[in-house]
Amino acid sequence: MLPGFLLACFLLTQLVSSSDVSRLGPSFSAEPPALVRYVAAAGARVPCAARAAADTPRLAWLADDGSTLGDIPGIRRIHNNGTLELLPASAYGAEPAAATVRCRASNAHGTILSRDVLLQPVADVNWEVSLSAEPAAAGGVAALRCRAAGAPAAPALWYRGDRVLHIDPPTPESRYLVAGDALLIRDVSAADAGAYGCVARHALSAATKRARPAHLVLAATTVNSAPRLVATASEVSVPAGADFCIPCVASEYPAPQYTWYRELNGRLQPVESSGGVWLWAGGAALCARGRRAAGAWLCKAYNVFGDATAQVRVDVEDALTVTVAPPVLVAEAGSTVRFNCSASDAAAALHWLHDGAPLAGGAAGGALFLRGVARSHAGTYQCVARSGRRTAQAAAELRLGDSPPELVYTFIEQALRAGSSVVLRCAAAAAPPPRIAWLLDGQPVDHYLPQHRYSISEESSAAGETVSALNVSAATAADGGRYSCRASNALGSVEHFARLNIYGPPSIRAMGAVRAVAGENITVYCPYAGYPISSVSWWRRGAAAALGAAGRVAARGAALRLAPALPHDAGRYACSAAAPHGPAATRDLDIQVRNPPKISPFMFSSELTEGSSVQVLCGVSSGDKPMYFSWLKDGAPLPPSLQIEEKSLNEFSLLMFSELSARHSGAYTCRVANHAAAVNYTATLTVKVAPAWATEPLDSAVLLGAPLLLECAARGYPAPTVTWYRRISDGVAGTETGERWEAAGAEWFSGEGHGGGIAGGEGGGEGGVAAAGRAALTARAAARAHQGLYRCTADNGVGPPLVKHVNVTVHEPAHFGTVGESRNVSSVRGRGAALSCAARGDAPLTLHWTHRGNRLDLDSYRWTISEVRTSEGVRSTLTLRAAERGDAGEYRCLARNQYGRSELVMFLHVEEPPEAARGVRLGGAGARWVRVAWRGRREPRARWAALATPLHALPAPDPDTARHVHNLTVEPVVDDGVDEEGFSTLSSVLRDLRPATAYSLRLFATNHVGQSPHSDALLFTTLEEAPTGSPQNVRIRPINSGELHVTWAAPLQDTWNGELLGYVVSWRELDRFESSSEEVGEGESEEERGGRAVVRGWSSTELALGGLRQFARYALAARAFNRAGAGPPSPTVYATTADGAVPSEAPRAVSCEAQSARSVRVRWTPPHTHAHLLRGYDLHYAPLHFSPSWSGAVGTLTARTAAAVGAGGEAMLQGLRAATNYTVSVRARNERGAGPPSPPAYCATTEDVPSAVESLRALPAAADAVRVVWLAPTERGGRLTHYALYTRELGKVSGEWSQRVEVSETAGEMAGEAAGEEVWHEVRGLRERVVYEFWVRAATAAGPGPPSRAVTAAPTYIASARISSVGREVRAALGARLRLRCAALGAPPLARRWAPLPAAHTLTDTGDLVIHKVEQQWAGNYSCSVRNALGADAAVFSVRALLPPAAPAPRLARAAASALHLTWDPPHDGGAPILGYTVWWWRGWEVNAGAARWARVASGESAHVLRGLACGAPYRVALRAHNVVGTSPHSRPLHLRTRGDKAKAPPGKECIWANSTTLRLSLLAWGGRCPVATWNIAYRLASTGTWTEVLTDGEVVEVSDLQPGTWYEFRVLARSPAGETPALYRAATHTQTGERIGEPIDLPVEARMSASDGTATGSGAWRGALAAALGAALALGAAALLLLAARRRATRRAAARTRAPPPLFVPQPPHTNGKTLSPPDGELHEISPYATFSMSSGTGAGAGAAAGAGEGAVRGCALHLRSFAREPLELAAPPPRPQLIAHANEYGRCRDSDSESSGSPCAACAAELYRLPAARLSDTLPVSATAASVVSAESSTEDASYAAARRHDLRPDPRHDSRHDLRHDSRHRRARRRDLHAPTVRNVHEPQYLVTPEYALRMLAGDRL
Q: How far is CA 332 from CA 398, 402, 433, in A?
């Protein structure tokens, strides 16, 4: 009976679950992936999203231990949408560790967890993308490979030029196909050639990188070449179900064919296009789909000359998936439900979760049973599958359908007083919603309670529960009892009871008869009321004693229990309830017992078969009548179609089956019911059925290797056993008993190379037996062993067994053994060759041969074919007598029989020695390689080599390089194809050559047959390369405190790699540049700590570095350079400059702290250097002032202390102001002076007691009062807190008393500087006419100050007018509002009068004068007079107006390359001390120049240095002064310029190098003292075409792939802060044979300016521009001569009246090399009119010009003059070397000024007018040198300031003394050495005399000496 009930329940639940019910619980719409690999430095985002049909799910993340994850700043963040963000890891923090997390989604209907998510961070590594393109033949397939090295990246985009290639999904007709990292293009033509690009995307960080473009070229068609695979893959991993393509692209000629094979059961099977697999472009790629593609694949590319194969392993990444059925299940309460879980991986472990928590007992397995479903079972169930590290989950929802009620809230037992009210509540949940009834002692409450005293309310809660409340009012003792609430619906009911006790006497309600069922338990409760009750007892009427608590019939309190009830228990029982005091209540009860039916067991026979009859009897042995019978089959009423007859009487029922069949089998249930109960009994009927064929086996004939299937199935009951047998011998002829059979199976399982097996219905047995009525023999590939006679038997023991014989025949088609077998045969030309093939298959077999698709002519004497029959088939041999070139190619052996055909491909290769190369030419050249192209045959076994002989005399540095034979790797070249002789263009790169070396080259080829003749010689020269050797023997020695002398030797000549142009010397200061603890001072940059200089000429091997820091250690290295660039640096050498100046570093770690109100302790650490030479320290300190106009230090003071012995210094500053902020800086001092100041330290002194108050006075204010007035103390010592006013009678020693006067009370309404100064207070309660004395003490937080002087006064009635205010001086800022207080005493009325009265004023009611706006004209004395009838009084106030300071007048002291030195005189302070200055400067001279910068300067300073400026740039400078009143206007702006000049363009022949395909421009040859910021370089064909921009590294520009023997133009624009320098060059490449067609040409200035504007200047245009420029120059020159001639006479007369002209030559300071030069006394050399002038950029200022000319000279250029009129002096020094500039950032190169072939001079002077006569030289100078007046306030590009430019006008000054200039310049030079640390560089050999600027200007004006 139980199995049928469970089956019915299970079917019911399945029926409900099959309906379309949506899930109310959550489900993942975006589940996190199982593995999240991410770059730790980039972070990652892990999404998690869930949805639900009901309320929105809540998302959270859980750790591996189940704890909830939260936000951690800097590590992770959890967003509101459920996304888990892993923040990028800090570069300085620890790398995050791997972790496993899960996402949780929950709502009111359930909770689910995601799969395990492994967070795996990986380190960020550098990765690159490269694109390669193999040459492709026209009409073939091209392959481009986009590979990412060092990262998991794949191609994301493909480009054709700059256009994105849009590639459609792959189809067999697609022209473009993406296969892995390869892009394949079919049917390639010339239109497809060009540049391609690709972009790869990082799989973890999503970062993209683009590869450098690759060019696809069409290769020439060649001959005699086997295929070569250029695009394939070894392993491919694809997701399950995804499409993928595998490339297999081969090159060479003729175009290859492709065949694909797949490995199945150890054999290679040919692949043909089908639904899941298809071939693209004839097999150049294979595309597949689905999980079945996993395994090994073989690609074979072949042509007539050979083949190439590639094996590919395909791994299908089958994701782990889980399915749970049914997804939603609605079950009835108490039923049994089942969830089925299946995973894609059968080996995965399964376990179950309920609302995110593991089920009790750890439920596991594919089936989950829930028995006795209750409300607690509802929710979401998850099946989690785990296989290794993979996890997956699926969820289903269990929902209760119609369920019986469950009580969720009940009431408890309680006791009440009579008359009270009570409310009882119950809540129940069920579906459908239940109804709640209230009972009292088992009866409805209305049966006992009046309706007016109770009420019942019922409502539904938000959770769907039914809540009912019983409210009883004015309860009596009779209302007590056993109350119960009963919730019920159609599916059941549930009840709860508890007693309600009400104080009162006991009583028992009337009870009706109780009916019990015999054999069942029953409990009866006594319905008593009242409280308290001492006892409740039961007894049976007629019994002497009450029932006990034990036994079958027992009474416990009010409960009577029959367990079980028996028939003799029927009768009358009595219940008695007794109170502690008083009578007991008793009531009788009748119990009736009834008997249920009892069925006698019955059963069916187990040997029933089809067609027999049977009867079964269901009888009852006991039970009350009447009884009712009914029958069920399988839990349902008997179907009429079964024709079962039923007969029932009073005590039994008969079931009769007339003819049994299989349909009658089942479970039969007899059901009997009476008034007591209904009972069931079930018996099973089984009908046996003989076997019958369901699938009858048939004979089968298949081809060898084809699938084979033999099926055999039978039905019956019990299920028949199906077995396969195979006959193994025939036995005795003619008899059947002689046959021998064995169970089939061995050959199906272990057949060689064949897969197969035996399949059954529900499991297999041994020997091919299947126990479920079905058996099948299967083989994936039929073999010879499968052939024979088979027998299938089916038997279940019912009737005779079934037997069927079948015959299996296997036919073998013609084939050649292993599929895909091929051979390559080689033969030397003129020798014989043999090709052989062996065919297998059923006879008869026929074979024939073909050559290149044509059947061989067997009549030819050159061919012989022989055949031999073997046991396996036929072997055929093709013999060729003498092989020729035309015999090479593809041969096919074809075999055929009636079952199929096959062919075997073989290739014959006829070999011969290669032929000589033709037309050898140069295809490109580098420093150590050349590309050579030639015409030749392309043969697979030919190896090409080159014989390269150098044509120079230098010996080889390495004996290994003496060999001249180089093996070549042939590369494809695009040309016009193969000519009629089979020659095509070949190319190769020859490497390991010497730079800048001429070679003779010859080519030859070899193979295993022989060697070809040598080709014709090719002459070429390699390009230059940067030197590979460094300068030797670098030595350095100090010259003086700021100068180093460097010498070196040239590197070895074989490392020059070309013409050596010069050397680059680099230096840096140690300890300052490298130490991170040093602070960089104002204006100090890294460039000032190091730099570089360039020395021209390979023989220049010494250099002097000046302007360095004294006693500083320097590291120096030298490099040699040529046109290709600079070589490696030499070993670093070190040297220390001499100590000869003030300390260069400031003390470190300066700190200060207050020691008292008047002292501060300062501590510091000595500087790194010079610590042992220090004599002491200077401490600069100043109070800080804060106001709207100024915030900073005011009035710097200096204290000096001796040098400390030890690691630190310390000093105490005394005499400071109390409660004042101070700034303190320290300077180290030696015997030569103080060094730079340290960064300021800030501290504040503590508060002090104030000084005594001033101007104390006392006046009688009334008969008992005195008014005391005083002024605040001068030194307050901090913030005043209060005043103490002391009073005592005059003459008494003690008895004084004090009064506290708050400071806030003194402010009043006073304004201006008078505010808060005057304080008054009236002392009352005094005795009239008694003299008192008064004194005051001011107090701060530090305490009270000293007492003031005492004043006396006697209180009396005041009659005469008196002024209590104190007259004094009042200072107010100009424009401020001022209030003058005039407080008075006296008998009214009082008349006040002020004089004078300003224009804007107000007189208050109290007599105060308010001046609204203080002006300068109203400053002075103001008197206030007070008068009444009894007297008068007056007070005088002196008002002083304070003004902002006047505008200062700055001027330039000197200019440096990156600094401007300013000085000024202090301006008028406006009546208030100057607090400081603000210096403003702008880049440029325009008003709206760049953003302004400013700096603060202390008030005691009158000079400032602007540092960190741009070299040679214009600046506009202004100055403002500050005081407490305000700020002065801006000073008149100064237009200044730092030292430096623009870049200088060298001649083209010195900086341009050419080859036949390359032009190289060396930028190291450019001069100029200011560094070049940017280079703008372009080139084009001469006079035509558009400009093409090129990039540069700042040293070399190289343009390759140019046309040989062609003129090109280079446009160069060098931009520096000093300006732009354009240059235009014209240069030609060499011819193909290496000949030059011309030297590089420098185009004129007009062409340069045109080039800088970007305009094209042709040859005719620049010649016309040059002619126009020369004409204009001649006209201007004539006009200038006339003007100068007119002025010459006036100048001569003025000079004669004043003084003699200055000397022509000024000696320079002596140099360290000891070579000096002084002209003969009294002898001056006259300058020839045709003197040669060499104008440099003023670099001589570094050691020559600056020393000789000084600061006051006007030097647009430094002029080096040589006399021709007289004999030149015998110079003691060699000719001058190029001058180098005086700053580390500004080193350039200039040509030797005395060299006739040196080219252009520096760009400070016009290079095109170099070496012109003196009469024409004036045209080349700047306007400032030749104009009548010089533009003010502008410094030159050299040293001159605007003041010097004004002083040295063209007009002579009789007061000027050149000697004074020299002294002045010497002082400035020494000062500049101390202040500036910008290094200066010069060559040690310099000119000893310079022409003074005065003389140069006079000479240009036409004066004669």
A: 10, 6, 14
**Distances, alpha carbon 404 to alpha carbons 372, 373, 410, in Å:** 12, 11, 17
Tokens of 1380: 């003058």
- CA separation for the pair 54, 1178 (Å, rounded): 82
Confidence of residue 1873 (pLDDT cuts 50, 70, 90): very low
Using DSSP, state whether 333 is helix, strand or coil.
coil
Q: State the Cα–Cα distance between residues 681 and 601, nearest whole angstrom.
A: 7
How far is the C-alpha of 305 from the C-alpha of 825, rounded, in Å? 9
Among residues 1094, 1145, 1878, 1092, which one has the least CA distance to residue 1538?
1878
Return d(Cα 379, Cα 361) in angstroms, integer. Answer: 18
Concatenate the DSSP letters of all residues of 807-820 into one string. EEEEE---B-SSTT
CA separation for the pair 1316, 1307 (Å, rounded): 5
Sheet with 295-303, side-by-side order of all strands:
235-239, 306-317, 295-303, 257-264, 267-270
- Read off the pLDDT band of 455 (50, 70, 90): very high
Beta strands in 528-685 (DSSP E): 528-531, 535-540, 553-556, 559-562, 571-578, 584-594, 598-599, 614-622, 628-633, 636-637, 644-648, 652-657, 666-673, 678-685
Q: What is the pLDDT of residues 724-777, one digit of tens each?
A: 998 886 544 444 556 788 888 766 743 333 344 555 554 333 333 333 588 888
**Measured between alpha carbons, how far is 529 from 550 in angstroms, rounded to an integer?**
25
Structure tokens at 446: 């209305």
β 514-517/584-594 pair status:
parallel
Label residue 1341 exposed, middle or buried (CB < 10 Å: 0-12, 13-18, 19+).
middle
Q: Confirm if 575 and 507 have CB atoms less than 8 A apart.
A: no
Distance CA 1438, CA 1824 (A): 56
Distance separating alpha carbons of residues 1570 and 1537, to the nearest angstrom: 13
The tokens for 1396 are 């004078």
The total number of residues shown for the chain amounts to 1905
Please answer whether residues 829 and 885 qualify as being in contact, where contact means their C-beta atoms are separated by less than 8 angstroms.
Answer: yes
User: Contacts for 271-279 with beta carbons within 8 Å, 24 or more apart?
Assistant: 271/297, 273/172, 278/172, 279/172
DSSP SS3 for 1788: coil
Q: Nearest 10 degrees: CA dihedral of 1626, 1632, 1634, 1640? A: 0
Question: Who contacts 1494 (Cβ-Cβ below 8 Å, separation ≥6)?
Answer: 1478, 1479, 1480, 1481
Return the SS3 of 779.
Answer: strand
Does residue 1524 contact residue 1472 with C-beta atoms inside 8 Å?
A: yes
Question: C-alpha dihedral over 1817, 1823, 1824, 1828, to 10 degrees?
Answer: 90
Q: Which helix (H) or strand (E) holds 1826?
A: helix 1823-1826
For every residue of 1477-1494, DSSP letters joined together read EEEEEEESSSTT-S--EE
The torsion defined by the Cα of 1364, 1365, 1366 and 1369, in degrees rounded to 10, comes to: -160
Between 111-120, 310-319, 1154-1163, the lowest mean confidence (pLDDT) is in 310-319
pLDDT band at 861 (very low <50, low <70, confident <90, very high): confident
- Contact yes or no for 1892/1858 (Cβ under 8 A): yes
* Residue in 413, 499, 425, 496 with CA at minimum distance from that of residue 465: 425
- Bond into 1396 cis (ω within 30): yes
Give the separation between CA 1230 and CA 451, rounded to whole angstroms: 117
Cα→Cα distances 944→148, 222, 973, 1892, Å: 33, 16, 15, 71
- In the three-class reduction of DSSP (H, G, I as helix; E, B as strand; rest coil), residue 1829 is classed as coil
Residue 357 makes CB contacts below 8 A (sequence gap 6+) with none
Distances (CA, A) of 1103 to 1053, 1116, 1885: 21, 12, 9
